[in-house]
């Protein structure tokens, strides 16, 4: 979520058992309160996950807080939780412009189009190449607590993280994905980015737990992935392995899209929210 120009205060409320509210304690708040630790910084965007949160500042610095058992905060998990925002030192000197939180992993992209990933990697969602074990087999590194480059050959414009998979939009308007794009066990996991065929000139992407949305520059909305709850918006509950056009929105001028865990939403040019 991008924030307006200064002055800005970052507010949080709700469940805080893992420190994800960033207020120095692990408890819940049923009213909005300011995250005081960020008052001294020019925060330009915030992202909220189920158990962790992050903030991006105008200078590109990245702060994270919350649950850290899988390395989801981007620094060594010396503690299980971090209840106050902490700078991700591994990205010092890098200007982060956008980031995303998935199930147990995070993604970020800098001003040069370079993508980064960290956190859980048991399904290859961080793009880690397989490591060779002593017996000759190959296995994925389960956790990556320090941010590392991913999708090395791509110049990325936007990143989006699902439950166990990752999706990026390149500056050429192409969509690439890797990890476990379906509920675990349904399809083989991959750690190398694969281009999603059939999508051209995409302007933005959104990713839920196991479903994906892509909005093209001509206003066409495409959807694919899990559809158990009708989150693809195509009139049935059958999953789709390839992008399918959301015909019900074809006559509308869409300007933004969003995906929750198991639902989707879109914003029209007239300011109407559809879900």
UniProtKB/TrEMBL annotation:
Signal peptide: none annotated. Residues 10-274 form the RCC1-like domain. The keyword Repeat applies. RCC repeats lie at residues 8-59, 60-112, 113-172, 173-218, 219-270. Keywords: Repeat. Pfam families: WD40_RLD. This is RCC1-like domain-containing protein. It comes from Triticum turgidum subsp. durum.
């Amino acid at each position: 979520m991008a924030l307006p120009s200064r002055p800005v205060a970052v507010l949080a409320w709700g469940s805080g058992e893992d420190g994800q509210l960033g207020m120095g304690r692990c408890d819940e708040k049923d009213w909005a309160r300011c995250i005081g630790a960020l008052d001294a910084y020019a925060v330009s965007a915030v992202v909220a996950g189920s158990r962790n949160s992050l903030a991006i500042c105008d200078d590109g610095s990245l702060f994270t807080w919350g649950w850290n058992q899988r390395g989801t905060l981007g620094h060594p998990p010396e503690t299980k939780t971090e209840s106050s925002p902490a700078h991700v030192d591994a990205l010092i000197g890098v200007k982060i412009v956008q980031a995303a939180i998935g199930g147990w992993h995070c993604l970020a992209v800098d001003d040069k189009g370079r993508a980064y990933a960290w956190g859980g990697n048991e399904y290859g969602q961080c793009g880690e190449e397989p490591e060779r074990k002593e017996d000759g087999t190959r296995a994925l590194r389960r956790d990556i607590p320090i941010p590392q480059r991913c999708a090395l050959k791509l110049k990325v414009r936007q990143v989006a993280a699902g439950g166990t998979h990752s999706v990026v939009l390149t500056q050429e308007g192409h969509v690439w994905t890797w990890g476990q794009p379906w509920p675990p066990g349904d399809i083989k996991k991959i750690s190398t980015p694969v281009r999603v065929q059939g999508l051209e000139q995409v302007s933005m992407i959104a990713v839920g737990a196991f479903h994906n949305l892509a909005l093209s520059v001509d206003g066409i909305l495409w959807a694919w992935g899990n559809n158990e709850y009708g989150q693809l918006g195509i009139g049935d509950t059958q999953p789709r392995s390839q992008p399918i056009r959301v015909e019900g929105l074809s006559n509308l001028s869409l300007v933004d899209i969003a995906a929750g865990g198991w639902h989707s939403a879109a914003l029209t040019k007239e300011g109407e929210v559809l879900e």
